[in-house]
């Protein structure tokens, strides 16, 4: 496999005869499978050979690769065959990838995992309840469990002794050190935890009412969205036949046409696209599954991307990273990063950036075209009409027709 990247017989002999030699062909195959380019793979293979020689000089074997010692060696490295830089990102990262490859082969021991302290049983039961009965995502469960554990650490492990004053004091003390977003999330998670404890008979009923609400008036803010001209520029910024441009175009169209959340796009699977019926199966919050119509331009964009989708990854997810290793997006943050880069490329400057502004944009576009609020709520998968009602303020032209003048103007 090394012949794919090196043609000189002398270099091939040097690589295979070194301490890392017997594992370099497999490492090269792994790099190719993960989608690394030839130039990058050559740097990583050189780094793998380099770290083998350094460990041998220090009297250690490949089973005991010490990346910290290798990094220290690179500061004063004068190895004659260490081509490609002695203190750069590729050398250090290549050595790390090689060690990871050896761990998978069983040659190296994985890094020592720091054992986290055991969480209280009530918190563990609360997490299981959230997953089973509320359909919460892993990220939401981690957030709720963190706040629940903090409350138990402050008030004690026996909730039967908790009093409303204690709960309120704890929340106010925490709120004095947090921002608005953190306070609102903490309020929601603690109320859910206290309701769970009350139902389980572990604390007095109604204790969740002791968690004060953050002063924020419903429907006070205007929804942030892009204009029609900005949406056109955003889509035009994805023109091109490159795999990354095709992927970005499909993502932007999904967000602007269907109002999907970033997490919905990241979790979208190949089997969720029903080409014959022209529909899309989306599973959102609380495992709530719906089928949405697949517009023609969105379907064309997805099909164009799938034609040049990186073949290195055989994941069932639709959208993959374009930088090796070509893996699926872990969560919606990666999708938001894609949107931010496209907005920058299109020269769009807005107070809010990311995928969620395109969800607001999709809702306001439907409203401009006369779609009723209840239908918009169905597309956006809102649980109540009150959530969708905030978009009624976005149609300024319609509001001007129904606005009444102040009495002084009559």
Question: C-alpha Rg, in Å?
Answer: 28 Å
The class by helix and strand makeup works out as mainly alpha
Distance between the termini: 86 Å
CATH architecture classification name of the largest domain: Orthogonal Bundle
Largest sheet: 3 strands, antiparallel
Percentage of β-strand residues: under 5%
In total, the number of domains comes to 3
Name given to the CATH homologous superfamily of the largest domain: Intergrase catalytic core
Write down the secondary-structure element order.
HHHHHHHHHHHHEEEHHHHHH
Please provide the count of β strands. Answer: 3
Global morphology: globular
Instruction: Give the CATH level 1 class of the largest domain.
Output: Mainly Alpha
What integer is the average pLDDT? 86
Strand order of the largest sheet: 1-2-3
The name CATH uses for the topology of the largest domain is hpI Integrase, Chain A
Q: What is the number of helices?
A: 18
Helix share bin: 40-55%
Unreliably modeled segments:
none
């Amino acid at each position: 496999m090394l012949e794919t990247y090196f043609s000189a017989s002398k270099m091939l002999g040097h690589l295979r005869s070194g301490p890392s030699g017997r594992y370099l062909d497999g490492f090269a195959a792994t790099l190719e499978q993960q989608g690394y380019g030839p130039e990058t793979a050559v740097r990583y293979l050189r780094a793998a050979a380099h770290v083998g020689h350094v460990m041998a000089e220090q009297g250690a074997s490949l089973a005991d690769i010490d990346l910290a010692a290798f990094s220290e060696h690179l500061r004063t490295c004068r190895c004659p065959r260490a081509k490609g830089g002695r203190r750069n990102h590729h050398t250090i990262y290549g050595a790390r990838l090689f060690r990871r490859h050896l761990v998978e082969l069983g040659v190296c021991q994985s890094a020592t995992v720091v054992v986290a302290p055991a969480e209280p049983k009530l918190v563990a039961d609360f997490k299981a309840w959230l997953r089973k009965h509320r359909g919460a995502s892993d990220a939401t469960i981690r957030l709720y469990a963190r706040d629940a554990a903090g409350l138990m650490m402050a008030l004690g492990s026996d909730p039967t002794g908790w009093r409303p004053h204690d709960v309120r004091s704890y929340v106010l003390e925490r709120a004095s050190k947090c921002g608005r977003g953190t306070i609102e999330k903490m309020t929601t998670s603690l109320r859910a935890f206290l309701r769970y404890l009350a139902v389980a008979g572990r604390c007095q009923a109604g204790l969740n009412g002791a968690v004060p609400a953050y002063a924020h008036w419903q429907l006070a803010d205007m929804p942030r969205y892009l204009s029609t001209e900005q949406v056109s520029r955003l889509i035009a910024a994805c023109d091109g036949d490159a795999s990354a441009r095709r992927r970005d175009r499909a993502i932007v169209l999904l967000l602007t046409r269907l109002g999907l959340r970033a997490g919905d796009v990241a979790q979208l699977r190949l089997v969720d696209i029903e080409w014959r019926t022209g529909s899309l199966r989306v599973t959102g919050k609380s495992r709530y599954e719906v089928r949405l119509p697949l517009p023609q331009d969105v379907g064309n964009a997805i099909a164009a991307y799938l034609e040049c989708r990186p073949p290195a990854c055989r994941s069932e997810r639709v959208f993959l990273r374009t930088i090796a290793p070509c893996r699926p997006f872990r969560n919606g943050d990666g999708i938001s990063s894609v949107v931010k880069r496209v907005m920058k490329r299109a020269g769009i400057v807005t107070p809010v950036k990311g995928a969620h502004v395109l969800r607001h944009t999709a809702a306001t576009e439907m409203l401009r075209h006369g779609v009723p609020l209840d239908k918009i709520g169905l597309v956006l998968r809102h649980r109540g009409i009150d959530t969708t009602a905030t978009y009624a303020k976005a149609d300024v032209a319609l509001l001007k027709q129904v606005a009444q003048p102040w009495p002084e103007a009559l």
